[in-house]
Amino acid sequence: MFEGTVPSGVQRFRWLYLTLAFVGIFSGCATTRTGKPNSSIAPDPVASSKEPSYKYKPVELPASAAPAVEYRKSSDPAVLAASTNSALNQPAPTNPLENEPNLPPAIPPHDMPPSVPPAEREFPIDLTAALKLAEAENPTIARARQMIGEALALQQKARVLMVPSLNAGSSYHDHTGNSQRSSGTILNLTQKSLYVGGGVMPVTAGTLEIPAISIFSPVTDAIFEPLAAHQQVAVRQFDAAATNNNTLREVAELHFELLAAEADLRVRRESATQEAEVARLTRAYADAKQGREADAERAATELRLIEIEVQQAEEQVAVASARLARRLHLDQSVRLRPIAPNLELVTLIDPSAPLPDLIEAAIERRPESGSRAAAISEAEYRRQQEVYRPLLPTLGLGFSGGVFGGGSNLVGPTIAHFAGRTDLDLMAYWTLRNFGFGNLALQRQRRAEVGQAQADRARVISQIRTEVSSALAETQAARHQVDVTTRELESAEVGFSEDLQRIRNTVARPIEVVNSLELLNNARVARIRAVLDYNKAEIRLFVALGSPPPLDDSGGSPLQSPPIAEPPLPPLDGLVAGLPRGNRPPEGTKPPAGTRPPVVTTPSVATNSPTGIRPPVETKPSVATNPPVRTGPSAAASPRSRPIPPPNTLTTQVVR
To answer: Does the structure show a pLDDT above 80 at 188?
Structure first.
């Protein structure tokens, strides 16, 4: 192996050295595999040779340790022997944890004073209770439903245009001075009259100005105003359903944010407890001169930073509670506490569902699409109203009956001759505004309004497609992120556990466990954020398909009466029952001629999860036996009706 001028004694020494190195390698590997300290082996001083401020005392080392690398820099056997003997004859260092023979099996909790004072009252809540409270107490939903009541009142008003009005009373007339006859003669006249009965204000030699029974209305308004008003009711109902869906989506997202804030606070407190233990161990190494003072200071600094993060997490919990209470119209001085102990991974829509099927289902079910279709119908009725206005007459009817009497200075006495009196007036007339140019301008205005309504519906459908596609993409990306962060968390937990055990056994350096805990803390927070993003994306996708977040009707109610904020909301007066489901028009809606009825589908909702999330069930859409017609001016104004996606795309799952 060695040739040339190499002496034979050197060869024998090298063979001996290589044998010792080979034995040392196996002994060092055995110590590393078992994870238990070797009584004759201390922490590696080679690492301290790279960092002069971090030094272990020289101890007995195997021949495979790093000092042998330095020996190879010299070819002198005497130098190699002296270096090896000096390393083998060093005393072993002291154990920095020798005063703690019995380490606690669990890390004691790290006590911290709360940065946010605890609330005087707390109200436990889950997702189902939050959604039910929002439906009953949210001001935005209440306002949208009151607008339904306004539209219903206007519809009732339009339906009674041809119903007579009743007037009754009494009128007294007294004239003194000049008066002109029909022949033009001026007379100095004192005249008095009194009328009592149906109607008032009789005119001399004429009918009553205000009849007892009166009808006065254009026929075109009597025909088309009720139809247009009915479509306006449908618009308000669809808008209220859309407001309900969006508000409940926000409530569900805020509830998930509250759960995430609570989970974030728990993991940061756990990290603070573990960091306190790491700081204690690192300080023990530094005090025993077995670790750097800088490492101990860094561990203490990390502990202070995590304590700040705990305070920020407490603030986020209070803020999330206040934001949710605002949506629920609850007293914000009462702290909301989620009943669910953990933030669960919720799957409402399969992320692998085909996007075209989801878009078709959303267009069929979204109340925004139905609202715009009803608005098109209303605009079309208004256009037809102006087309028929010059062709249909204005009708008038008046009938009065009462007691009338009077007199003058020409025929005395001044007030006498009382007797019964009846008046009947009928009229019908046609109007051509501004020689017809005014009517033509009104027709063009209404035609433009129809075009605007059609453009709004196209815009809404495009927005629906965008919301569904973006929500599905967010769900898929968030699901992938959940898988990634789950693997990272598992790896970080294993790494921190091993590093903490090694530092307790004086095998590893303290700085290693500080880095491992930092990675573990980041992995915990990252997974919470990933689960939160996934749940919110699932809720957005579910609502984007036209349904509100699912309710658990079999779940329990809140543990106590909710702290409703002041002032109270106005009564709904039965307006909740007038809300449509999906984009279905209200009962009795009749579109203009030329529209085609679509297939209306309504998904069934069944929940029995204790946290208000639907269990894994297949949601099969039920098709109405007599589907109502779609509102719209023509068949071309609405997309062709297609079946909804297969049931497996609407499967609900809870991944715990």
So the answer is: yes
Residue type (1 letter), 233: V
Q: How wide is the angle at C-alpha 275 spanned by C-alphas 281 and 96, nearest 5°?
A: 0
How many beta carbons lie within 10 A of that of residue 655, not counting itself? 12
* Helix (H) / strand (E) containing 171: strand 168-180
Contacts of 631 (CB under 8 A, 6+ apart): 231, 234, 370, 373, 374, 376, 377, 585, 589, 591, 595
Instruction: Go through the domains of the chain in sequence order and give each one's CATH number.
Output: 8-88 (no CATH), 122-156+229-378+446-595 (1.20.1600.10), 163-222+391-439 (no CATH)
* Mode of pairing for the β-strands spanning 122-125 and 335-338: parallel
DSSP state of 198: E
pLDDT of residue 19: 60
First to last CA, the chain: 64
Among 406, 402, 405, smallest CA distance to 423 is for 402
pLDDT at residue 50 tops 90: no
Please report, as a single letter, which amino acid is at residue 344.
Answer: E
Q: Which residues of 272-297 are buried (b: 16+ CB within 10 A; e: fewer)?
A: bbbbbbbbbbbbbbbebebbbeebbe
* Among the ranges given (241-245, 442-446, 557-561), the one the predictor scored with the smallest mean pLDDT: 557-561
Distance between CA atoms of 650 and 201, rounded to whole angstroms? 70
Structure tokens belonging to residue 572: 């709904």
Contacts with 623 (C-beta within 8 Å, 6 or more apart), sequence order = 599, 600, 601
Tokens of 487: 């693997």
Place of tokens 């979204």: 366
pLDDT, mean of residues 387-409: 93
Q: Please tell me the chain's helix, strand, coil percentages from 3-state DSSP, rounded to the nearest 5.
A: 50, 15, 35
**b/e map 447-456, b = 16+ CB within 10 Å:** bebbeebbeb
Q: pLDDT grade, residue 106 (50/70/90)? A: low
- Cβ atoms within 10 Å of 26's Cβ, excluding its own: 11
Q: Does the structure show a pLDDT above 90 at 251?
A: yes
The residue whose two tokens read 């119908």 is 377
